[in-house]
Amino acid sequence: MALEGSLSDFGLADILQLIYFQRKTGVLTLDGRMDRVKLLFVEGNISGAESKRRVDDNRLGKILLKKGLIQEGDLQAALAEHKKSGEKLGNILIKREMVARESVTEVVNSQITETVIQLFNWKEGTYEFKAQRLPQDNELSFSLDTQHLLMEGLRIVDEWSVIKGRVSLDMVFRAKEETPEDLSEEEEAIFRYVDGENDVSTIIDISGRDNFQVSKTLLALMERGIVEAAEAAAVEAMPVETAEARKRKTLPFFRFLVPATLFISLMLSVSIVAVRGGGPAKEFRAAAAIDRMRNAIETYKILNSAYPASLDLVSRADDPWGRPYVYRVSGGSFSLVSAGSDGKEGTADDIE
Asked: What is the DSSP code string of 278-308?
């Protein structure tokens, strides 16, 4: 059974919830005005993403090259083999030992995440999910937690309301002047990747910084006249169905769902609405962010035999009230809290 319809009637968050809780395996195709995206799912989790607008193999090579992880000659040889054989570029690079598996995995994970998150800004378009078996990639496989990406996408959409319509992930910037002397450390770190070719998504991948922070920094540089938006390469617009065509095509697929699944989906929709708001919603978001950062801190310790000296080594995010999280290392342990709505550590509204 295929699930299909209009994104204006049934949003991406609801679709992802349904696929995740039913542990579906298959392909979700989304058609928008400027792009066609395919999300691959294995047992409810996202295993891949393909965008017509952005060719992931080309972006992978570009990012690895700009990070200094591969030589130009090796990349061209791998691209030639990819074109001839059709094998994924990442698999070729790993098998030829041109790039470490961990480096390829990190970049591809970031690409998948960015592709999914930019979909949360789509208000129009159509979707179709087809349950089907997917071929296994024994060389380079991925499984991103759909629930985590859902929460991250909603968080970013909420934060991006500040810069809505001014900076998007596929925008390209170019410098209007040489590096100014009065740039902050953060601005200088982002400015070095502005070359008239890198889109915002690529800058995020190369810099390793939070996507909202990168976009906000680029907006600040643009407002100061240091950078300007460059015209992106033309992309064939995807046709959008008329309201009448969507009406004829859309399937009322809720009738196929068992009552228990309907109940779960409706309850989750209520929780998502709450997360978008303030008050308790901000407390929920802070607690979820702390859980993610704790995992990142523990992972850092495993890799480096010590906890990070400062939190910005694993995250640069502020809490939902716009304040830094309070992080301390003492002996063989650490503490991580948000001071809550009152901004005072040690009070009843602290979130740990």
From this structure: STHHHHHHHHHHHHHHHHHHHHHHHHHSS--
CB of 336 closer than 8 Å to CB of 293: yes
Q: How far apart are the first and last CA of the chain?
A: 44
Give me 229's structure tokens: 């938006």
Distances (CA, A) of 266 to 15, 32, 150, 251, 339: 12, 26, 16, 18, 32
- Return the structure tokens found at 209: 């910084």
pLDDT tens figures, 306-342: 888 888 887 878 888 888 999 999 878 888 999 888 8
What is the radius of gyration, based on Cα positions, of the chain?
A: 22
Strand boundaries in the chain, DSSP class E: 2-6, 26-31, 36-42, 45-51, 126-131, 172-175, 227-230, 326-330, 333-337
From CA 169, how far away is CA 200, in angstroms rounded?
5
158-to-122, 146, 271, 320 alpha-carbon distances in Å: 14, 18, 15, 10
**Which residue reads 């035999």 in tokens?**
305
Separation between Cα atoms, residue 17 and residue 129, nearest integer Å: 13
- Rounded CA-CA distance 193/276 in Å is 32
Residues 182-209: tens digit of each pLDDT:
888 888 888 888 888 888 888 887 877 7
Reduce the secondary structure of 31-82 to three states and give it as a string.
ECCCCEEEEEEECCEEEEEEECCCCHHHHHHHHHHHCCCCCHHHHHHHHHHH
